[in-house]
What does this fold into?
Amino acid sequence: MRKNRPRAVLEQGAASKKKQISPELRSVAISASLGLGVMAVLIFLCGLLLSAVDVPLAVVSPTGLVIGCAGAAASGFACSRFNREKGFFYGLLCAGVLFAALFISGLSLTGQPPTFYTAIKLFSMLICGALGGSFGVNLKRKW
It folds into this structure.
């Protein structure tokens, strides 16, 4: 039998029993979103550059690799700054999430199977994410 408790107390008890998302997983999701935002801005700027200047088509693919690495490094850096520990691991994790997002979107848009360039992009993004995470943990705080 239920006691006569206020409704707010009953709802609070039910809400506390729900599964909470861990802070580490939340920081990875936020950092991966930040990395996607960095990549979107860089892609926009490169698109402006490509439309203004006559650039050879062979430059587009390496530029995409550099943009992916920059987004992975920014994501790993942000995640390790949030957590203040395990920067290498969190950088790898954020870079893996970003690569998975790029791989799935690229596969759904083009329909072409993965190539050797896909493996190069994966390892490059993982290395840049791990380096960004390591820099984020080891950077001194001023406050």
